[in-house]
Amino acid sequence: MHQLRHWPLLGADTRIAVLAHRGRGTNLPDNTLEAFSAALEAGADGVELDVRRSADGRAMVLHDAEVPGLGPLHLLRHGDLPAQLATLEEALERCRGAVVDVEVKAAPTEAGFDPAQQLAGEVAHIVTAALSGGAGPSAAFVTSFWPATLEAVRRARPELDAGLLVVPGLDAFSGLEEAVAVGAAIVLPIAAHCDAALVDAAHGRGVAVIPWAVDSDAEITAARHAGVDAVITDRPGRARTLLEAG
Length: 246
What we know:
Blueprint: E1 17-21, H1 33-41, E2 46-53, E3 59-61, E4 66-67, E5 71-72, H2 88-94, E6 99-104, H3 118-133, E7 139-144, H4 147-156, E8 162-165, H5 172-181, E9 186-188, H6 196-203, E10 208-209, H7 217-226, E11 230-233, H8 236-243
Parallel strand pairs: 1-2, 1-11, 2-6, 6-7, 7-8, 8-9, 9-10
Antiparallel strand pairs: 2-3, 4-5
Helix pairs in contact: 2-3, 3-4, 7-8
C-alpha cells in the first residue's frame, strides 16, 4: 500500500498531482461515478470526493447534507437512495489506479453529527481495504475540517494517512500546527493562503501541502511556484497544462 508520507511529497521523479474537485472538469453531476471516470479520462491524477453516513450506517458519496427531493441523508437508508448516489466502496473501485482524497463530513455543524465519529472509523477501514485489495486506488487519504475526525481515522487505521483541511478564516500556519498535533500527513489550505513559506514550513516537518479551490490561472501558477505537492481544482485539464508549463 502506498504511504502518503512518501506520496505526494514531491521528489525528483514526481510531478504535482491534479485532483478533480468532486470529479469536476466535465458537465457531469458532482460526486458521481460518471464524473470521476470522466475526470480521470480527461487527465486528472485523481479525485476529491465527499462522504456522509446514511441512517443504516453506509458511507455515501455526497457533499450536501440533504439528498435532493428526499431529505437529510442521515435519516435515509441505503435502499431508499437514488441509484446515482454511490457508496464509498463503489467510488474507490471506479477510481482504480488513481489517487482519491476522501473528505469526511462529520463536524459538529453537520446535520446528524455523531460525537463518536463512527463514520470516520468506517471510512478508514473501507479505504484501507480498497488500497490493500489491489482493485482500488493507487493511493488514498482521508481529510476533514474537524480534527476529531482525523483522530478517529488515526485510531482506526494508524497506517492510513490523514489530512487537515484548514478553515479559510484560520491562519494556514496555525492549521499546519493543528495538523501536526493530530498526526496528519497533509495540510490542505485554501489556495489564497498557500505560499512558498507555508510549503517550506510544512515540508520541513514532513507534511505534504495540497491547496484547494485552485481554479484561476493565477492560483494554479502560484501553487506551482510555491512547490505544492498536489492541487484540488475544478479545472483539472487547465491545471495540468499550467503546472507543466514551467
